[in-house]
């Protein structure tokens, strides 16, 4: 969210301002069970905009300017999610994330302008739950926040349909639709979606996915997953729903 020189990205500030419109000050009280999010970013303008956007979306929010401030809050408060900037003065977001993951089970969504694959891998290797590069669409941020908060609650679906953004998959009929358009699936893609649909939020190992495939190749599974992502993801290179569970396999999240 910061450009060079530590300045807030005009694109991000504009998008966040537009995303939290007339209800900037939430009139109705939040429920007691509203998720509590800690926003950690050294840019005050970005913190304020993020907090206003999240508050208008129904979350309780606390903001911290650096890692030391975040640690102070976490000694006395419980959080459901941490939104953590990578590049901060003093202790970096990577260092804080690594320590938090070693000491407490709080989910972390890392926000960073570092878009290189090596930087993304470094972030994920700390154990963070997701990694979003700047600039980003506020709606995508909100979606990723909601998906992370639902993790750990995976169970067999009770409905015959699952929704992934604009896509809806009918399990019994094996039909995938994006808005009103029918999306053609191969038999293998139907099998994969049905398997994932019965284990929402639960990582499925590659060997388990490949055991039901005539090729028997884990590499072939990776290729099939990439093809499936092109059909259900808005940005297949940065998947929101069908994600890689590092060291485990793949996991499907739904709306």
Layout of secondary structure:
Layout: H1 10-19, E1 36-40, H2 44-56, E2 60-64, H3 67-76, E3 81-85, H4 93-103, E4 108-112, H5 117-125, E5 130-133, H6 138-150, E6 161-164, E7 167-170, E8 175-178, E9 181-183, H7 187-197, H8 206-210, H9 218-232, E10 242-245, E11 249-252
Parallel strand pairs: 1-2, 1-3, 3-4, 4-5
Antiparallel strand pairs: 6-7, 7-8, 8-9, 10-11
Task: Describe it.
- This protein is α/β, with parallel strands linked by helices and 255 residues long.
- It has two domains: 4-150, Response regulator (Rossmann fold); 161-252, Orthogonal Bundle (Arc Repressor Mutant, subunit A).
- 38% of the residues lie in helices and 18% in strands.
- It has a five-stranded parallel beta sheet with strand order 2-1-3-4-5, with helices on both faces. A four-stranded antiparallel beta sheet has the order 6-7-8-9, with helices on one face.
- Helix 2 links the parallel strand 1 (36-40) and strand 2 (60-64).
- The longest helix has 15 residues, at 218-232.
- It is globular.
- The relative contact order is 0.10.
- Residues 1-7 and 21-27 have low confidence and may be disordered.
Concise account of the structure shown:
The chain is α/β, with parallel strands linked by helices and 255 residues long. The protein has helices spanning 10-19, 44-56, 67-76, 93-103, 117-125, 138-150, 187-197, 206-210, 218-232; strands spanning 36-40, 60-64, 81-85, 108-112, 130-133, 161-164, 167-170, 175-178, 181-183, 242-245, 249-252. Helices cover 38% and strands 18% of the residues.
């Amino acid at each position: 969210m910061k450009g060079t020189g530590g300045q807030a990205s005009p694109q991000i500030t504009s998008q966040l301002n537009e995303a939290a419109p007339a209800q900037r000050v939430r009139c109705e009280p939040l429920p007691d069970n509203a998720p509590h999010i800690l926003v950690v970013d050294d840019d005050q303008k970005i913190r304020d905009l993020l907090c206003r956007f999240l508050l208008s979306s129904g979350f309780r929010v606390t903001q911290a300017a650096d890692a030391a401030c975040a640690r102070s809050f976490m000694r006395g408060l419980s959080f459901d999610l941490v939104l953590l900037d990578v590049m901060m003065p003093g202790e970096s977001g990577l260092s804080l994330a690594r320590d938090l993951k070693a000491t407490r089970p709080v989910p972390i969504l890392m926000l960073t302008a570092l878009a290189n694959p090596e930087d993304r891998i470094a972030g994920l290797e700390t154990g963070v739950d997701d990694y979003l590069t700047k600039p980003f669409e506020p709606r995508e941020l909100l979606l990723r926040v909601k998906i992370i908060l639902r993790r750990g609650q995976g169970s067999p679906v009770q409905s015959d349909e699952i929704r992934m953004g604009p896509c809806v998959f009918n399990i019994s009929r094996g039909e995938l639709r994006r808005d009103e358009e029918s999306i053609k699936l191969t038999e293998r893609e139907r099998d994969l979606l049905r398997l994932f649909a019965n284990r929402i939020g639960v990582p499925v190992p590659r060997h388990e996915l490949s055991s039901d495939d005539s090729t028997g190749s884990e590499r072939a599974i990776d290729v099939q997953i990439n093809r499936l992502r092109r059909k259900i993801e808005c940005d297949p290179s940065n998947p929101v729903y069908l994600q890689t569970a590092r060291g485990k396999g793949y996991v499907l999240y739904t709306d």
